[in-house]
Amino acid sequence: MNIYQIYELFRRNPTITTDSRKCLTGSMFFALKGDTFDGNVFAADALNGGCACAVIDDARLAGTFPNGDARIILVDDALETLQQLAALHRRSLNPKVIAVTGTNGKTTTKELIAAVLSKKFNVLYTQGNLNNHIGVPLTLLQLTDKHDMAVIEMGANHPGEIRALANIAQPDYGIITNVGRAHLEGFGSFEGVINAKCELYDYLRNASGTVFIDRDNAYLMPKASQISTVMYGETSDGDAKPFVEGKTTSLAPYLNFRWNSLYDVKTNLIGDYNLKNALAAIATGLYFNVAPEEINRAIAEYEPRNNRSQLKETAYNHLIIDAYNANPTSMIAALDNFGSMDVSPKALIMGDMLELGDKSPELHREIVEAIKSKGFSEALFCGKMFSGAAKNFKCFDSVESLNDYLEANPLRGYYILIKGSRGIRLEKTVEKL
User: Is pLDDT of 63 > 90?
Assistant: First the structure.
């Protein structure tokens, strides 16, 4: 069965599942493989659970089903077939597709853009962080003819991944929020990060697309040559005046800002670093003729989730929870923002930054030195890398040992920044604070 025949089957059964425990009647099961599982062995469970068919790539398993069982579709590679199906579906419906990638802020930017555009259009957008080689096609396959637009988040930790995702999603527009020192283990160097993220620009250049770009970003601006650009930023320079300009007006503790010297916006976002994310959403909204008042309302109504710069008031402390991800760029931005907040006393709970490769010890030492210069009242470190770098601070190898310390030595009356990579699981400290 070729991809066009599979697509016709999808049109009759337009729900995809990769989990045999979640099989809606009439859905299509794709037998994907992971490090610890093989979806092929669950094909029978999926069919018994109500799936109309199962796309598998194990010929030996296919032989265990009765000859002529039309519910079994044998392909060379189930994941590749899923990706081809998503690309074909995207072309068939042809909505406007906006791709969002970057080292930091891509999820917040994606959600802000979706919130703004939803004031005027029917928008599909990536849920959570389903931004990889599986999540992107699964998102695209949720498109219907009722959607005007799709906002697709794209993540990567190796060269070539953004290129592959762009070939699947075929965006008309794109945003790289920023580039920073993250996933160095996979990219090899900061230059490798820049080149990998700019694979999105390469695609849009060849596709005669348009990029929304931070005019202040000295790394990205030169990479956007020969592409149609819509600029936003905090500065202007003669003919290079951004389409959208904005300035932070206060951080108390939420970000408030003014844009184009006309509009004041109060947000539920923590951190001056979120200004650029908001300006990207404003530039996108204006480009698609969303009224400024509706843009402002969408941004003001947005509330971050999933431990992304969330402000949480407990019975004892004020917490800024930013434990979803961490790299040197986002760490410094969070520390600078926290340092500028006019509150006291301040405490830090810092978790290791993962996937930094050989540079990891040096980069963790840099963060410790930056913290020393800030004069915070209390600083606790969690993870093996920080334990090696922060010799004169209280350090803990695991979040469990950190929690034991917090149980015996509770923090009370503090503003506390909780920042670390997701794998450190610092969100587990919240109940102790």
Answer: no
Distance CA 198, CA 176 (A): 8
Q: How do residues 295-346 score in pLDDT, each as one tens digit?
A: 999 999 999 876 677 888 999 999 999 888 888 988 998 998 898 888 889 9
Q: Quick one: which of 33, 151, 25 has its CA closest to 82?
A: 33
In angstroms, the CA 210 to CA 118 distance is 20
Under the banding of pLDDT at 50, 70 and 90, the label for residue 237 is low
Q: Which element (helix H / strand E) includes 270?
A: strand 263-270
Do the beta carbons of residue 396 and residue 380 sit within 8 Å?
yes
> Using the 8-state DSSP alphabet, how is residue 35 labeled?
S
Structural tokens at position 41: 């062995």
**Cis check: omega of the bond before 328, within 30 degrees of 0:** no
Sign of CA dihedral 187, 192, 198, 203: negative
Residue 367 is which amino acid? I
pLDDT of 43 > 60? The answer is yes
CB-hemisphere CA count at 13 Å for 370? 20
- The pLDDT value recorded for residue 5 is 96
* Distance between CA atoms of residues 137 and 85, nearest Å: 8
Higher pLDDT residue, 236 or 103?
A: 103
Residues in the chain: 433
Angle formed by the axes of helices 106-117 and 274-287, nearest 10°: 30
Residue 10's alpha-carbon distances to 6, 29, 51, 86, 395, in angstroms, are 6, 11, 12, 10, 53
> What 8-state DSSP symbol labels residue 432?
G
Using alpha carbons, select from 179, 18, 173 the residue that is nearest to residue 110: 173
